[in-house]
Amino acid sequence: MNQKKSSSLNQRIMDALEHLTPGERRLATVIRELHGDISSYAANELAERAQVSNATAARLFKRLGYDSYTAARAQARAQVNWAPPSLRQEERLRNGGQSDNTLAAYIQADISNLTYTLEKIPDRAMHRAVSMIVAAPRIWITGFRNSTSLALYARALLVLLKTDVRLIAQNGMSAGDDVATMQPDDLLIVIGFRRQPQLVRNILVEAGNIGMQSILVTDLHSAPLTSLVTVSLLTFSDSPGIFDSYSAGTTVINALCSMVERAMGTETTERLARIEALYRQVDNLHGESENTNTV
């Protein structure tokens, strides 16, 4: 089966995003804001919302591989991958509650997410991101809402390799204080999945204003932020349930940090050894056993 023919609307937009014209990108953003549910809209209504011509709308759906807008709308009726949890649940209940709710279905969805992510992120993007992280004297990481846990994960890995890795607005503090401290040679890493607050865009804009480079790990829901960053790593987060899956995002962060460790060589060897020694000292100060088998 032709892969494009079998791809969902969000996957097709992600694949074509970097090749879209400004007008097509505006229309793609409107579709994203509708969570991909275009089933109740006529093509001219979407075009009007995006302030583009009907011809631009027709070109976009042709570029995405649909024979017509009607074909795209028919597919949208059967898919709710972009919808927030409340709408996904509503759709499931409307269909009689029938869905594949087995562990196998979720694992298979993540296998697809990982496969699509691998196809979407070119090696050159990963290598450039690695080089940026290695060269940066200080790294700032931010992520809000569902992205917070992945931002913490990225920081937990990178702080083992780099001496100055900071979270923006940590523990509820003001982001303005951190943004004011940023320097042009610093690096900003944004973990930005579904429903990012305006604050994320504001931080990226300010970073760009002072000439900072930035890396964005995201999915299609936050894809419009890609125009504000140096390197974007787009992942897939589809799930058969009402919640997004972040397996692909976690894997990309893990791979990125592991590649940084390889690139830094003996510099990380010395740091990791020192950290391990300090772990033991801290454990001893707390009276914990040296026996690593102790539970």
UniProtKB/TrEMBL annotation:
Q: Tell me the CDD domains matching this sequence.
A: SIS_RpiR (cd05013)
| Keywords from the named record | DNA-binding, Transcription, Transcription regulation
What SUPFAM superfamilies is this protein classified in?
Homeodomain-like, SIS domain
Write out the GO MF terms. Answer: carbohydrate derivative binding; DNA binding; DNA-binding transcription factor activity
Instruction: Give residue ranges for domain HTH rpiR-type.
Output: 7-83
Q: Which domain of life is it from?
A: Bacteria
Checking Gene3D superfamilies in the record gives: Glucose-6-phosphate isomerase like protein, domain 1, Winged helix-like DNA-binding domain superfamily/Winged helix DNA-binding domain
Its recorded name reads: DNA-binding transcriptional regulator
Under InterPro entries, the record lists: Homeodomain-like_sf (IPR009057), HTH_RpiR (IPR000281), RpiR-like (IPR047640), RpiR-like_SIS (IPR035472), SIS_dom (IPR001347), SIS_dom_sf (IPR046348), WH-like_DNA-bd_sf (IPR036388)
Q: State whether keyword Transmembrane helix applies.
A: no
| Organism for this UniProt entry | Komagataeibacter europaeus
- Upper lineage ranks? Bacteria, Pseudomonadati, Pseudomonadota, Alphaproteobacteria, Acetobacterales
GO terms classed as biological process: carbohydrate derivative metabolic process
- Kindly indicate whether the keyword Transit peptide belongs to this entry: no
